[in-house]
Amino acid sequence: MDNLTAPYSQMFRGKRLLIVEDSYFLADEARQKLQELGAIIVGPVDDIEHAVELIEVGAADVAILDLHLVTERAFSLVERLEKQRLRYVFALGHEPAGAMADFTGFVLCKKSVAMEHIAKALFGNGKRDI
């Protein structure tokens, strides 16, 4: 693991973080934890089209995506994130599908991962896996 230059809890402060999650309870839990760490939450949103609109208008600095929402049509969201050079992570509980390996700039995380790991993924030195 990399050493952080600042405590991970400070890394979220003031950052606009888009949460894309279709489970209300998971999205709300993530929203609460991230707000406690000082993040400005965009969403949460539960559909790809709304998330793409928010990315296109520059509403977010980084994003956390539910892997279950990542279908063929959802790749447009990932492509927009990469085009705008926004960092993102997938929250998942299993190995990603083969097509996911084609995308760069993200770190794969299990949904139960600690906020420190998400902070490192979004604001750290760019390592791909945690």
Automatic annotation (TrEMBL):
Alphabetized UniProt keyword annotations: Phosphoprotein
Domain Response regulatory, residue spans: 16-130
Residue numbers carrying 4-aspartylphosphate: 66
SUPFAM superfamilies given in the database record: CheY-like (SSF52172)
Gene Ontology annotations of biological process type: phosphorelay signal transduction system
PROSITE patterns: RESPONSE_REGULATORY
The name this protein goes by in its record: Response regulator
Species the sequence originates in: Rhizobium tropici
